[in-house]
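tool_log.txt
---
The assistant was asked to compare two proteins side by side. It first ran the structure predictor on the initial sequence, then on the second. Raw inputs and outputs are pasted verbatim so the downstream comparison step can read them without reformatting.
(1)
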Amino acid sequence: MTTFERDAKTLELPWPFTGREDELELIRRSSAAGHHGIVVTGPVGCGKTRLVTEAVRGTDCARVAGTPETRHIPFAAFAHLLPEPVSLHRAVQLLSAVRLLLVDDAHLLDDASAALVHQLAVHGRTRLLVVATDGAPVPGAVSRLWTGELLPRLAVEPLPHEETAQLLAAGVGGGVEPFTVNRLHRLCRGDLRLLREVVGAVREEGLLVRLPGSDEWAWRGPVPVTATVRERTAGVLDRPDRETLELLAFAEPLTLDMDGFDLRVLEDLEAEGLVRVDDHGGVGLAHPLHGPVLRAAAGRLRARRLARTPEQCKAALEDEAATLSRRMERADVRTSCAPVGEWLVAEGEPVPSWYAAVRAGFARLRGELREAAAWAREGLRDTAGDPACGAELALAVLQSGEMTDPDADTRVRTDPRTAPWLAAARGDLDTALETVTDAYDAVRLGAPGESPGAGVFALHADALARGDGPALDLAAERLEERGFLLFAAEASAQAVHIHRDPRAARTSRTRAVALARRCQGARTPALSGLVLGELTARQRQIVTLAAAGLSNRQIAEKLTLSIRTVGNHLYSAYARLGAGGRGALPWLVELPDAQPA
């Protein structure tokens, strides 16, 4: 007998289940006694089966599953639960004793099995958890479970960005830097099977490395063409008009004019959703995964001939920076497409410090503090000591709560912009207000003073000066509309303490918490008192112990939990708090106003 050995670090181990807490709770309630069950649908690879499996963990649950190979065999999915042969009526009688039944891949059920599931739902004695894939043909008996209102339906969306970051941290065993999270989220679009396979291949090829001076993992370089990647991109790799797609792929991150292309081919590709045409007549690939895969599969000589160099992107990079600067001047930082900078980072190419400073400032104003810090670090790698990038890095980390020792942290660059936030990070709000020079920074720190010009910032300042809670709520809405999520969260948080109506205060607090959660760990004076309130009682308990320095094993022993359960609670808490890891927890737990929800 031959024994094969494999390096332990490359073994395929299940990633911890993380995120989707609301969906998990809904499924558990729907499968509890007194309920009839639920149908869970979603796109391929979004984690439906894992979600439902987690929901029934520890329960007495029978399982069946449809498969492509058995779609024409009657009752094939139930072969292990039913004697053979059996009628539909007899099958319903036999399975009525099953209290909870999980039906996976219900879109692949044979007609007899589908009819059996439908009859079990009609009779209502068996609680059903039915999983089906969007976009696939579904037997009529299955689709009528929700269209006929026999069971409620939960449509699972692709995993959002915040939970993708949480899952990656759990899967790779540490924090993942924002650019890598963004890239994986953009390429995989919530397809968890694809995400896991790409991350596994990146690790095996040595492309996932620790960033210098950081404990975060980063990925730079090509996309590995794994089996799942080929499966997901077969529609472009196997086309007879692949040459047109390759030309578009090697033009990325820029778009090309349609001149020189066969318009009939482009029309067909657009109709199939493979290419997109922008408002300026430029054409590019529609799916972000297609370009990297086409480039990787092209061969070295063809790639050498067609590849775009970073120097060719300089003009586009300047245009991106100018566009973002104009958006900031107009106080409008809603999402702006700026792919050239991301392409340079993904390829491992240096990013000019002047561009990085603009991207960092834009991200900071949007409340994307970790991303702002990442752009600033990229600029400092290009030009060590660049003052603009140094200031942006300091502002990002000072407002994120990740700086556990402001006096010792070498990332702090003290200047008139950063001095107030350095004092605030030390807990010295009086000094922060004494040293503040920017009128709107003073408003964010809670000082009602002179109005910072006009527009949404003046609306916020005026509402705070008048102590007007509803006006602060309105200012928060206007700030959110223009992309200033952190400022909106701060305005809502300030409204909490001004409202006289407890219901209005609770509404403002809920809004502040929801906005702050989208701001990548923002921890500013206005948000103090909100952070721990959004955790469950068990999460607050575990976070408090972790902040005190206890290891996962020590916490598990103290609370009589498994180490894995402790780890899952911590990952969920990190996501809710926006914390990058244990380093930020002492700062969060020691907030004097933190109260349970």
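(2)
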Amino acid sequence: MKKIWKVLTIAGMLTPLFQGFGTTVDAAAVATKPEEVAITLHKRSFSSMPSDTLNNGLVNDNFGGEPLPGVDFSLFDVTDVYYALLKDNPTTVEVDDGMTSPEAIKLIQEEYTATWFQDYNLVAERTVTTNDKGEAVFNQLKVTEATNEKRDKAYLFLETYSPADIAKVAAPMVVLMPVMMPNTATPGEWLDTYNDDIHLYPKNETQESSKAMNIDPSELRQITLSNGTEISYADLEKGYLINYTITAPIPYFIDSVNDDDTPVINNFIIEDKPTAGLTYFNQQLVVTAGTTELTIDNDYSLEEVGNGFILTILTEKDGKANVDTLTKLAAARGGQLTVHYAMKLTATITPDELQENTAKIAIGRGDAYDYSEDVQPPEKVVTGGRQFEKYDASSKAKLAGAEFELWNATKEKYAVFYKDNKELSNYQNDADRVEWVDDQTGATKFVSLADTGKFEVQGLEYGTYYMKEVKAADGYALPTGDAAFTEFTVELGSYSGFETIGQPKDVEVPNTKKGALPSTGGNGIYLFLLIGSFLMLAAYGGYRKLKKPTEI
């Protein structure tokens, strides 16, 4: 791999190899010095780096962590480097001030990117990718040189690629031949026999992607479903903007470049796919790598797809590595890429349906071990509504044409609904937002329908509201004062029901007919007077009979 020496500073020193500790022994002791050995690296990942665990070259079934596939380890023969350090320390001005063996190994592991080290022009002898068990096997490694001084070999293992969610890579490992068998009965002591099947356990620290809704916890509500699942949700009005944050890992080897000058990591995509009640609001997206804000078209592209988006980090431009962008990302390697943006409740959101928002994150070089993760915020989003029925208080007949205005809980503000930034004089379910105003003249009207007498409102935050009747159905009296107001509540399930609530009832709004008296001056008044006169004469005649004396 080109530019292998650009593979970063050491994340942490490997615990010295060959120190004894209790383990399962499945490597056979060899009485004579072997010509070749096999070294197996067992790659393990941890959510947080554990304390150092000493390697003794044997299989350890209790090492901990999870097997990590898809990690490249490159092997370098550092025999010349090691023996040169035993003769002279390159970090000092003195001559022939040779280092001890532990000092030489430590310097190689810590300073393998230093100029003096690169002067040896080392090239990886082979690179092995860990399998599904997290194992990388290096077979047929020579123990001694075949020519020259026939020195014992020294090998350096470097982690040169790992999946995107790796925050800390394994420290470089130097293995000095030959490897002796440990005395498992007395940790720290070594036997006189040789180990030709060596096992090492390099460690990685992983980090997780995440997605969160940026909302005050006090504004959230909780409900427990019938299956025992607890859900936290925010109840919001149509048109409300909800801020989200996505975090994705920045690969440790983000700026690695292939021999043809293409980036090793050629796929870095974040796709946001909300449910139908949410839509991307394309004016507030900000992308940062660590503390550095990235710029659209230079560092990333953004495509709106459906009601979501696809954000692509531009690791490549014009067929070559996008060095400027990779440099910005590398400054935050092992850290997080952060995407801040907003979603809006749509005009067509259905009341009582909990809305979700999934981010799909894909990062890698195009092999079977690419990082792929779906993340959702723990919080859901929902909006509310209520249905009403206007009817005759006596006959229960459904009444059409009654008009209402929506007031808030304090009866101080009126609702004006909008669609495409235009005020609606009469309410429509596909209104895309609502505003609460003091001036009643522009209040949106709700009109009861013919045959059913029904009307409804959608897209409200949960709480208490009032419908005020401002025009009665034909032939009916308009209520006055407090009688004109119908109080109702909006909550989860108040519109269409919910599994723990059941089907809600419509809010009933009765009306009383006006009196049936004809208007003054109409023909009907004469008939009324004539009937009244007959009744009065009949009553007078009856009275006279009662007053007449009875003859004996």
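---
observation on (2): The longest helix spans residues 524-547. The chain has a mean pLDDT of 88.
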